[in-house]
Write a sequence for this structure.
């Protein structure tokens, strides 16, 4: 799935880049207009790309290289050498009886575990993938299950939303992974991605024929 995501993502970025670069050609029906538009457009595009690369360089220093879960909690080791922690003993209960202490929230078509860390809402994120997919936590599902299991074992006073077990395909009894349900969902996503790429390819082919 990682290589499929990289391949399709790269193709989408390439298609977007070609469209952006070719906009002045499409918008200009005369050489004079094209020259005027290009003088204003391409320097702005170059500046935008320069700022984008600077941003990528800065955030890459904060990329998580390693995630460790032990009997203390979860530890994030970043590329710059710093380590962030969300420990079990720092988790707090909410004062409202109808609010779970451990829950989830949607983010980019996935779900992130949310806890009350010393009075502040914290995301316990086990994905930790950068935009270029240069790093990927291979055993993230096992790490997530172990952290949730640690909450149940070390902090039985905390209330866990039942949806946590459902969206992460975790058996709440023995904390095993429901592979059948997971691969069924992956198959549906793969079919959608293939259909999307076929539609995009058809549109791009029509765009190329229209240009030439």
């Amino acid at each position: 799935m990682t290589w499929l995501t990289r391949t399709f993502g790269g193709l989408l970025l390439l298609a977007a880049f070609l469209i952006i670069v070719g906009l002045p050609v499409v918008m200009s029906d005369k050489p004079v207009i094209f020259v005027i538009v290009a003088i204003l457009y391409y320097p702005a595009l170059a500046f935008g790309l320069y700022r984008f690369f600077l941003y990528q360089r800065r955030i890459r220093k904060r990329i998580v290289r390693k995630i460790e879960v032990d009997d203390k909690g979860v530890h994030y080791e970043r590329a710059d050498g710093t380590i962030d922690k969300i420990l079990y003993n720092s988790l707090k209960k909410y004062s409202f009886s109808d609010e779970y202490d451990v829950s989830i929230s949607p983010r980019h078509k996935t779900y992130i575990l949310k806890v009350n860390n010393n009075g502040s809402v914290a995301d316990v994120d086990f994905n930790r993938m950068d935009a270029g997919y240069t790093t990927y936590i291979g055993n993230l599902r096992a790490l997530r299950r172990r952290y949730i299991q640690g909450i149940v074992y070390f902090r039985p006073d905390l209330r866990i939303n039942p949806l946590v077990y459902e969206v992460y395909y975790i058996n709440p009894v023995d904390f095993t992974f429901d592979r059948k349900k997971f691969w069924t969902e992956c198959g549906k996503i793969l079919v959608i991605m293939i259909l999307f790429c076929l539609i995009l390819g058809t549109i791009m082919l029509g765009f190329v024929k229209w240009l030439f």
